[in-house]
Amino acid sequence: MWRKAKDLGLTIALLCSLLLCSCSGEDYSSIDFSKEMQETEWSWIPYDSDALRISGRGDYEKGDFVVLMWSGSSVTVGFVGASLEAVVWSKKIAYLDVFVDGEEDPSFMIKLYFPEDNPTTVPVVSGLPYGPHTVTLYKRSESSFGDWFFYGMRVLGMAKKELLPPPPEHKIEFVGNSITCGSDALVPALGVDFDLVYQDAYYGYAGQTAKKLNAEAHIICSSGHGIYINNDGTKDLLLPEVYGLTGTHSSMVVEWDHSQWHPDVVVINLGTNDFASGQNDSAQFVNATVDFVRQIRSFHPDAKIVLLDGPMLVRDYLAQCRQDLDVAKDVLEGMGEKDLYRFSFEPKGDSPFGFYFHPTKDEAAVDAERMSAWMRSEFGWN
């Protein structure tokens, strides 16, 4: 849990608070926070409050809550106060990262798992210096393991939409498998078995690329699944099938209205599971890729679309995947498709670190550095 802030004295706490406020455009210099702290009460922030910023595909039609399923879905709140609680529910396991006051790395993790059909109040932060703060809850685990029902928050103080950080400059949609989900990004040592607690989309290449580019990311990913065939040889819940939904593996899944959010760039990192299945057919893989790109284009006519390969395929599989993606791009351009791009990660080789050779946090950081530099150059982004 959140470790209580050290008592640095009221003067330092006030100075820190005022520095934070100066970026929001609201003047808090005349507020006596010591008096406010004595008089403050808990206040309720509903899930649809304008003091919250929700990122990711959400289903708002089931009740007095929003259902967030995909990796990287997040809720950010701005408030003046000292403590914060969230009212949530998840019948399966979902893990959330918690970021306080714009920190680079999360302060801690929250595990959501409540088999009873009731929303539960979960402590988020407490003991902060009374004043302005921002807190982000970020869904680090993928949709197939558990959903996140978000009802709202209780704050010991008052929500302030003016404290929300500026919206990101860019929008990127990442579509992929376990690599995009950040599986094993936090695996601690060689030979450790898979555990969902080691998965964190924030530390996968997608999350780290979005951070480097100051981009809002929608991360549509499902471990073990492909574009034409899955890792286990099945063809259920392929990425083109679930792409138009709010999540996977749940009775709560509904169709997503793509008009609500148009990305500047769509990055498709698929092929690893198709080729790893041992049953891949190049002609069907190319056809599935062509169909999927055209499906995405129908929703996002102005987006740039990047076909990405790597970094887990090696030797013959890697060469064939790259060749098939090049063919798919040529076919699409022959049909008149524009704004198509290819990018390749360097393969990890035969390193045994991680489950099935998934990139670790540090390895994903290298991939993210390369991809973000390429996107800046290719698209003219800062």
Q: Can you walk through the features of this model?
A:
By secondary structure, this protein is of the alpha+beta class. It folds into two domains: 126 residues, Galactose-binding domain-like (Jelly Rolls), CATH 2.60.120.260; 210 residues, 3-Layer(aba) Sandwich (Rossmann fold), CATH 3.40.50.1110. The chain is built from nine helices and 15 strands. The longest helix is centred in the C-terminal third of the chain and has 20 residues. The two termini are 36 Å apart.
Please compute the radius of gyration using only Cα atoms: 22 Å
CATH architecture title of the largest domain: 3-Layer(aba) Sandwich
Distance, first to last CA? 36 Å
How many strand elements? 15
Q: Spans with pLDDT under 50 lasting ≥5 residues?
A: 1-25
Helix content: 25-40%
For the record, the count of structural domains works out to 2
| CATH topology type of the largest domain | Rossmann fold
Total count of helical runs of at least 4 residues:
9
CATH superfamily of the largest domain: SGNH hydrolase
Approximate strand percentage? 25-35%
Largest sheet: 10 strands, antiparallel
- Mean pLDDT across the residues is 88
Order of helices and strands: HHEEEEEEEEEEEHHEHEHHEHEH
Could you say which overall geometry the principal axes of the C-alpha atoms support? Answer: globular
Instruction: Report the structural category.
Output: alpha+beta
CATH hierarchy, class of the largest domain: Alpha Beta
